[in-house]
Design goal:
Helix content: 25-40%
Distance between the termini: 55 Å
Strand order of the largest sheet: 4-3-5-6-7-8-9-13
Strand content: 15-25%
Number of helices: 12
CATH class of the largest domain: Alpha Beta
Number of domains: 3
Radius of gyration: 23 Å
Structural class: alpha/beta
Largest sheet: 8 strands, mixed
CATH architecture of the largest domain: 3-Layer(aba) Sandwich
Number of strands: 20
Shape: globular
């Protein structure tokens, strides 16, 4: 076993030195950043923002025109708070001005992804395929004692449709083995087959969408299946309420890591084993939490999320409003890493509810109904119907549901009695191709 691990490491290292030498160079830089003084990290981010904006004004038509209309000139960067005065980029901008956001000189490096399908507004976005983003995955795995050349298991959508694409991916990772279950359509037979292969492989890590991993964990618990305990389970794509975390820990007997990313900027922040918050990849992304006027909210308060990809020169996103809500934490992580920390994303702005009085109930509140008593439910979601009434769907545990009813009634009371609120037990919580939507507004 030890000899095989050494061979895998040597082969993996050799392939990366040959095919992705820039990744190994960048890897050393990001690992050196983990314990830098936080003031130095912020200073390096400030320099990166200045360089990016100067580049965008010179090379990207969209920013040249948008900043010109706003009266911004490069000389304004000498002013305090200059960055927060820049106009934001919206999903509408992506849809209507996509071509103007592309750097014509580097267009050949651009790859495409699609975002926002779950909100009914799918949006195309470009990104620089030459950026060695795998280094942020390596950083996260190393925190949990997992190496890139270790065997991994995945529960997510397989976007490689052709046999050739799958073969190339397998060849790139060989001799490391990657076991995958497609999260698009999950069946009992499929889960049994996956778990049998999983137990034979004994992977160091299980990664997947929150919804799909939760469904797999529930199946493991319900069927009493004994499974190999990985070093950690890595979830992404949706908020991770405490009830789901406990279920996954129970099923796989392993710590759970909540990682925050999006289709637009995939590597934003992630938890370490201390779970003291999500450490931001400051080399890659700048995060702002802002009010409705796009000005910073006080530390510890929730605001809409504005993201800037500091490395991308092919399809730069500067102060991009992605629809999420979050906040900076006032505390530091017990792990001792100086990378700043944010709270787990609690909900999406597009999934907030509006009451008849015009008040908005944000997603970060709606996803915390059972945080104080996660043992009461196996899973839940909050649905606002077209008549504005609200149903809290939940998967019950065996026993009396009166406490669930009480918590839902208490939640309704916080809404001032403006709308009818009811609890509804269900057998399962539906997911959208592996991604859980904890807050759903019918249209």
């Amino acid at each position: 076993m030890i000899v095989m691990a050494m061979i895998e490491r040597i082969i993996y290292d050799a392939k990366w030195r040959l095919l992705r030498p820039q990744a190994l160079a960048a890897w050393g830089r990001v690992m050196a950043n983990e314990h830098k003084p936080v003031e130095q990290l912020w200073a390096e981010q400030e320099r990166a923002k200045r360089e990016l904006v100067e580049f965008a004004v010179k090379n990207i038509k969209f920013y040249r025109e948008k900043y010109g209309e706003a009266g911004f000139e490069p000389g304004d960067m000498a002013q305090e708070g200059w960055f927060e005065k820049l106009p934001v980029v919206t999903k509408r901008d992506l849809r209507e001005k996509f071509g103007d956001l592309v750097n014509p000189e580097l267009k050949a490096r651009m790859k495409i992804s699609t975002t926002g399908g779950s909100t009914g507004e799918p949006t195309k976005v470009g990104y620089d395929g030459a950026i060695p983003e795998e280094i942020y995955s390596w950083r996260l795995q190393r925190w949990f004692g997992v190496e890139p050349w270790d065997d991994h298991a995945y529960v997510w959508r397989d976007t490689r449709s052709s046999r050739l694409a799958k073969f190339k991916n397998a060849l790139m990772w060989w001799p490391t083995r990657h076991l995958k279950m497609d999260a698009t359509f999950i069946t009992e037979a499929g889960m049994r087959e996956f778990l049998a292969k999983y137990n034979r492989l004994k992977p160091a890590m299980l990664q997947g969408y929150v919804g799909a991993v939760t469904q797999l964990a529930q199946f493991v618990v319900d069927q009493g299946i004994k499974v190999h305990a990985p070093k950690f389970v890595w979830t992404t794509s949706a908020p991770l309420p405490e009830a789901q975390r406990r279920l996954i820990v129970r099923a796989f007997n392993a710590p759970v890591c909540d990682q925050y990313g999006s289709c637009e900027i995939r590597w934003i922040a992630q938890q370490c084993p201390e779970c003291g918050g999500l450490h931001v990849n400051t080399e890659h992304v700048n995060i702002e939490f802002a009010d409705e006027n796009n000005r910073p909210v006080p530390q510890g308060e929730y605001g809409k999320t504005l993201l800037t990809n500091l490395e991308d020169r092919v399809f730069p996103l500067i102060r991009y409003e992605n629809g999420d809500r979050g906040r900076w934490l006032k505390t530091t992580c017990p792990c001792g890493r100086t990378l700043p920390i944010i709270d787990s994303v609690k909900g999406r702005e597009s999934e907030s509810f509006t009451l008849p009085s015009g008040k908005t109930i944000n997603g970060e509140f709606l996803t915390t109904i059972f945080d104080g008593a996660p043992e009461l439910v196996k899973g839940f979601r909050v649905v606002q119907h077209k008549d504005r009434s609200i149903t809290v769907e939940y998967v019950p545990v065996a026993g009396d549901d009166s406490e669930v009813e009480r918590l839902v009634k208490e939640f309704g009371g916080k809404l001032g009695g403006e709308v009818a609120v009811r609890a509804k037990p269900v057998a399962t919580i539906a997911h959208d191709r592996g991604k859980l939507r904890f807050v759903v507004r019918e249209r």
